[in-house]
């Protein structure tokens, strides 16, 4: 399967080809918006777009393919840009992704009609995102439920993202997708050890927590010991919780009271914070 952190290909959503544009003018608007969307893509995406067939065969109107569009002086420049982006096939041959594609069916409920969704299937199997035309209001939404059926043995639904305008990249659901798929780059604090503040409640066990806090401040990923935790005598996990804002709750399970504390780290999102938590557990538990 696609490795998290590697650059990914966008996949063309062939279902957005229809309804076809009414005329050359509408086709031109469709192509230019597609290119604007493509240019706004985050750096995690490669320059090529996966398609089932050669991109020149893409139909824009009843009588105009992308190849025809490029022959028109008015469409030559933008058409040539789109023409150079295609890469096929949708799914690489002799791969686990191809096996899964052949073993199951992938359909989208489009206005009550279940349609085979090759592009969405490819995006799902390759853990990436579709891109397509905003050919109708249906594609103004970014999330689409892909029905995956296993030869009549049952089915399940998976959400696949399909972008059709540059605004889609700014939506919360897409930002969450990006956060999950980008490589984790941890940053280290510039604070010296003696500059890191330690704040603990005057509870029983403060001496134990203070000693442990002084050890924790040696980590380059910890910026502050925020406070003591309430006693957690039943907790047996070193890491009690992590938060997207970089806060980590730590418990000392070897203590009878379940002494614990809250630390502020350099984590900027949940994945970074969880990675720092793993490091702290290996180093200090």
Strand count: 13
How do the SSEs run, as a string of H and E? EHEHHEHEEHEEEHEHEEEEH
Structural class: alpha/beta
Give the tally of structural domains: 2
Distance between the termini: 34 Å
Poorly predicted segments: none
The strand line-up of the biggest sheet is 3-2-1-6-8-7-4-5
Content of β-strand: 15-25%
Helical coverage, percent range: 25-40%
Query: Please, how many helices?
Result: 8
Q: What is the mean predicted local confidence, pLDDT?
A: 94
State the shape: elongated
The main pleated sheet reads as: 8 strands, mixed
C-alpha Rg (nearest Å): 26 Å
Explain the overall architecture.
The protein is an alpha/beta fold. The chain folds into two domains: 8-181, no CATH class; 193-284, no CATH class. The protein is built from eight helices and 13 strands. It has an eight-stranded mixed sheet with strand order 3-2-1-6-8-7-4-5. A hairpin with a 2-residue loop joins strand 4 (105-110) and strand 5. Helix 1 packs across helix 3. The chain starts with 7 loop residues before the first strand and ends with a helix.
Name some characteristics of this structure.
alpha/beta; 2 domains; eight-stranded mixed β-sheet; 13 strands; 23% strand
């Amino acid at each position: 399967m696609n490795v998290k952190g590697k650059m990914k290909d966008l996949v063309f959503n062939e279902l957005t080809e229809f309804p076809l544009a009414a005329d050359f003018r509408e086709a031109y608007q469709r192509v230019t918006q597609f290119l604007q969307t493509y240019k706004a893509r985050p750096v995690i995406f490669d320059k090529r777009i996966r398609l089932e067939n050669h991109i020149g065969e893409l139909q824009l109107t009843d009588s105009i393919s992308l190849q025809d569009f490029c022959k028109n002086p008015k469409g030559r420049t933008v058409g040539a840009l789109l023409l150079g982006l295609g890469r096929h096939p949708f799914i690489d041959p002799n791969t686990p992704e191809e096996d899964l594609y052949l073993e199951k069916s992938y359909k989208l409920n489009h206005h009550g009609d279940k349609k085979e969704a090759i592009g969405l299937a490819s995006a799902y199997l390759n853990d990436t995102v579709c891109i397509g035309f905003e050919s109708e209001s249906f594609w103004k939404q970014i999330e689409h439920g892909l029905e995956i059926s296993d030869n009549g043995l049952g089915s399940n639904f998976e959400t696949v993202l399909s972008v059709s305008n540059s605004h889609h990249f700014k939506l919360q659901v897409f930002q969450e997708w990006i956060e999950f798929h980008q490589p984790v780059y941890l940053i280290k604090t510039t604070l010296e050890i003696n500059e890191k503040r330690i704040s603990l409640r005057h509870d029983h066990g403060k001496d134990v927590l203070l000693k442990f806090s002084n050890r924790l401040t040696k980590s380059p990923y910890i910026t502050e010991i925020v406070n003591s935790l309430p006693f957690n005598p039943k907790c047996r996990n070193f890491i009690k919780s992590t938060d997207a804002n970089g806060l980590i709750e730590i418990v000392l399970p070897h203590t009878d009271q379940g002494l614990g504390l809250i630390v502020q780290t350099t984590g900027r999102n949940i994945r970074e914070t969880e990675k720092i938590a793993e490091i702290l557990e290996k180093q200090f538990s």
